[in-house]
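Any chance you could type out a protein's amino acid sequence plus the matching C-alpha cells because I've never seen that pairing?

——
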Amino acid sequence: MIFGFGKKEIRRGPDHFVAVDVETANSERGSICQIGIAEFDNWQLVDKWVTLVNPQCEFDEANIGVHSITPDAVRNAPSFGHVYKQIKRRMENRLVVSHTLFDQEAISEAIIYAAKVGFACDWIDSSRVVRHLWPEYRKKGFGLGNLKQEFGMTFQHHDALEDAIAAGEILCMAAKKSNLGARELGEMSLKKISISYPPRAEKLEGKKDGPLSGHVCVLSGDFPSDKANVSKLLNELGAAVHPNVTKKTSLLVVGGLEDTPTGKVKKALEYAERGQSIEIVDLKTLVGRLKRH
C-alpha cells in the first residue's frame, strides 16, 4: 500500500527538508521492505508518503520481531525499482534527514540491487545533532526509542513513516533550542551524498564466506550508482575487488551503460584468448543470478 497527501505545490523556504526512514527484511541493508518520507517546510510537516516494498528476498525472524512486517504483508507490494522514481523525486537535491546514516546506506544498496541511476542530496544525521545539543542523554543513548521517552514524543517506533516524522520533529526541536537554521544544524553532521560520480577505486581483500568467495572482481565502465558502494557490496558477498584487470582477475563486472568496450574489457578479452578463466558480466545480470541462488 502506498499512502501520501498526493501531488501539490509546496513552498520551499530556506528551512525546507525531507526526513526519511526505512525498515529492512534481513541483515542486508538493501533489503528494504518499507520506506517513509516526510517533508517539512518552515519547521512544519507539509507532506508525507509511505509504501511497503517487496524486497524479493527472505525475511529474518529478528527483523519481523522489530517491525512486524511479514512476507505476506509485502507479497503484492511494489519492488524498490517500481517506486524508485517517487523516492528520487522526493529526495534528489534536497536536504535529507535520517536518524543515523543506516537509512542512507540502505537506500544506496537498494539502488545497486535495482540497477537504478543514483542521485545527489545533502544528508543530515539527526542523532549527531542530538549528541551536540543534548549530551546529557549519552548514558541512555541517542536512538529514537530512548529519545521518544526523553522528549515525551508519541509515535509508533519502527514504522518507517512515523520514524521519519520523528526524525524531522527532532530537527525542529534542535532548531528551537539552538536558534539555528536547517543548513546550520546540518553542519554538525552534513554528508554530501553523490551516487553519480564514483570515487577512486580501492583494493578490497576477499572473504572466506559468500557466493562470490574466491573471485577476484574488477569494475569497469559507468554504473547506475556509486562504484564504492558496488565494490563494498561485492566484497560483502565474498569477492576480492581490485582496481585493474590482471592475471588474477576472474570476474569483470561492467556497468552496462557504456556504448563501446572499455580498456578493461579489451584487456579481459585478451586474457581470455590466452586461456585465462575470466567472465565478463554486467551488474544487473550478476545481481539477478545471485538473487536466484
Q: What stands out?
A: Residues 1-11, 192-200 have pLDDT under 50 and may be disordered. The chain has two domains: 2-194, 216-292. The domain at 216-292 is CATH 3.40.50.10190 (Rossmann fold). The radius of gyration is 21 Å.
